[in-house]
Specification:
Oligomer: single chain
Distance between the termini: 45 Å
Strand order of the largest sheet: 1-2
Strand content: under 5%
Number of strands: 2
Structural class: mainly alpha
Largest sheet: 2 strands, antiparallel
Helix content: over 70%
Shape: globular
Number of helices: 6
Order of helices and strands: HHHHEHHE
Length: 179
């Protein structure tokens, strides 16, 4: 009887933390992507960021399916997103292209990060009405990361322009229906 109760409690606790574990996987993949850039493994970083995007897609889905949405989960998701779709893509693109522009390259990558953090904070204090305001940082981070593949074919100036555009889109007032 005692063992049954302990097992039941353990499974309930695991169920309530499932979405948070997926979110922490997202954060971990973003952390590994950052470390990969520091070890000059830029292609690996790109792959890790895209895998993080997949896990980011599933954490909210699992939370809704299991009816375990929480304020903690929402905050943890935003902190993970700033790592995986803010810092990791920014460092990847700064290392690959934007560092050649010296201070302007630094400025625009910090602008991207600041806009991403602002967008996440705004999302966390807004009402959930089925719409995103501004481009979600996950989409911006994936697009910035995807632009890494275009480096051999486009000018670095175009990458700078894309970085600025993504930053502005994240803080813009347009709305986008959630999927």
């Amino acid at each position: 009887m005692f063992l049954s109760g302990v097992l039941d409690q353990t499974f309930k606790k695991l169920k309530t933390q499932t979405a948070n574990l997926i979110t922490l996987t997202n954060l971990s993949l973003g952390g590994f992507a950052i470390i990969s850039v520091l070890h000059n493994q830029l292609h690996l970083s790109l792959i890790l960021i895209f895998i993080a995007a997949l896990t980011d897609r599933f954490d909210g889905l699992v939370a809704r399916k299991l009816n375990i949405e929480s304020e903690l989960g929402k905050q943890l998701d935003s902190m993970s997103d700033i790592i995986s779709f803010g810092v990791a893509p920014a460092l990847l693109m700064y290392t690959a292209v934007l560092s050649q522009f010296d201070f302007p390259g630094m400025f625009f990558i910090i602008l991207y990060l600041a806009c991403g953090a602002y967008r996440l904070a705004r999302f966390n204090i807004s009402e959930n009405d089925g719409y995103f305001t501004g481009l979600p940082i996950t989409a911006a981070g994936c697009l910035l990361t995807l632009s890494y593949l275009a480096i051999p074919f486009v000018s670095g100036v175009l990458i700078v322009c894309m970085t600025i555009t993504l930053a502005v889109l994240m803080v813009s007032p347009f709305t986008l229906k959630k999927m």
